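Could you help me review a protein record that somebody else here produced? This is what I was given.
***
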Amino acid sequence: MIPPRLPAYYLSHGGGPWPYMKDELGGLFSQLEASIQDIPRQLGVKPQAVLVISAHWEAATFAVSANPSPPMIYDYGGFPEHTYHVHYRAPGSPALARQVQVLLQRGGLSAQLEAQRGFDHGTFSILEPLYPEADIPVVQLSIKADFDPLTHMKAGGLLAPLRDEGVLIIGSGSSYHNVRRFDAGAATPSRRFDAWLNDTLVNASPAGRSQQLINWTAAPDARFAHPREEHLLPLMVAVGAAQDDRGTCIYHQENMLGYLTFSSFRFGDATPADPPIRAAAPPVPGVDR
């Protein structure tokens, strides 16, 4: 039986090790958590493996984790002591890592295997609520340190065949990532950029979507929302892997921390096809597609 083509995703992954801090955080991330936990229903099947493009791994060339038993990378500071001992115990997949490397290299992109790499919080923060059993092999792909949108979309396009082989491709970043402006003054800029992002990913044609993302710095409040775009680049890989599949907003929240707007997106149809957890935000006046 031929497996169905899996959707690709771009997920806002929340703050630090939030899935392991529910007692401390209360319901702060409950809406995000619900959207992630709904993904298995959207897929309708259990993936053979998960490929995560993490905003928290940058390399001079694309790098692929090839550790069969990935350790944890606690790449955060100032959190409770117990969050430095959590362990997401999913296996790695050296075979999938090699396949990712070969697909990228055949397309003209340099890629190296990293045999020691573990799971950073861009990966385990989404996988803990997504597949808490940790029984699906997981491979990480870095972003490339040149931050070129077109290169990352090309990488996604080269990896798109994995979707037909039961591999779930997830770009893990954040639709808003200005850590110095998590305050009331960020409310309007984060909302305006998110409105542009929703309109681009949900309403634009695939060709128009790609062109707008290449020129993302022209979007309203783009550099306010992303002073440094490492949390946006996993989206470029997901969009490349999406090919002609349109986007759907599966998570939208305008009151995170009281001020900030965040969204997550799926590319491809859900099986069964049901409405997303949260509808896309209405357009903000003055924001053009």
